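It is worth pausing here to work through a concrete case rather than discussing structure prediction in the abstract. The textbook approach is simple: state the sequence, then state the predicted structure, then interpret. We follow exactly that order.
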Amino acid sequence: MKEFLKLSPAVEKALKEGRPVVALESTIISHGMPYPQNLETARLCEAEVRKYGAEPATVAIIGGKLCAGLTDEELEYLARTGTKVTKASRRDLPVLVARKADGATTVAATMIIAAMAGIRVFATGGIGGVHRGAEVTMDISADLEELAQTPVAVVCAGAKSILDLGLTLEYLETKGVPVIGYGTETLPAFYTYESDFKVDYRMDTPKEIADAIAAQREMGYPGGMLITNPIPHEYAMPKAVIDQAIEQALREANEQGIKGKATTPFLLARVCELTGGDSLKSNIRLVLNNVALGAKIACELAK
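Step two, the predicted structure:
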C-alpha cells in the first residue's frame, strides 16, 4: 500500500510523533465552490486546524499518488482547474492510480486514504446521502457505504439539504453507523441549524466524542462514526428560503437530465445563484466550524 500512498513531510512527522491530524477533502475545492473562494477556504481550513494544535492533511490524488497533505501549489492547482479534475470516489481510485492521473476526493475516497494513512478524524462540509426520489433512481451516495466499513470519524454539518434526510438517516441506521449530534438532539440540515429528524446521541464536548471514537476502535468495529455539527446560528439560512431554492434547482436538474456524480455540484451551484451567493457564505462558515470541531476531537484522541 505504501507504494500508492504519499504523506506530506508534516503529516508523516505528526503521525509518527502521535500528534493529532485532521483529514480534509478536496472535492469541496474543485467541485464545491468557485475560484477563488475555493482556494481561500482551503487555506483557511488548514489554518483553522493548526490553530487548535493539529496538523491538516488535505487529501487528493496527484499524479496517481494517494496524497494525505498537499503543498500550497497543489491546492491552487485543484482550485484553478475546478470541475475539470476528476471527482474521485471509491470506484475511481484504482483507475486514477493506474493512469497516474489527478483526482479530487469525495467523502468516501477521503475516508479510504485517511484510513490508509492512520488518520482517525476527517472534517468536511456535508456528507452525501440518499437523494430525493431515490426510490426510483437508486441514487445513493457511496459516502454512506464508506461510513459503514471504513474506520474514520467524519465531522460534518449533517447531510446536504438537497438530499432526503429521513432516508439518509434510515440508511445509516441499517448500516450500524452511529450518528452523533454535537450539542443537539436534532440532525443539522447543512445550511439550516436543524431539521425534523433526530440523531442517535447528543454529545456536548469534544472529549465525549473522542471517548466514543476510541471505544469504537478498541472494540474492533469495522465502520466509522458521523458527528453532525450545526452551522452557527448567525450564519444559518431561513429554512423557507433554502427549501425554495433547492426545489427549483431540483426541477431544473430533472429538466436538464443531470444525473449521477454531476448532480450535487449542479445543485449546490444553482442554489448559490438562487440565493444571491448567501448559500456560499454559509457553506464556508459551516466548513470552518466543522474543521475547528474536528481539530478539537483529534487533539482529545491524541492525549
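Step three, interpretation. The chain has a mean pLDDT of 92. The two ends are 28 Å apart (CA to CA).
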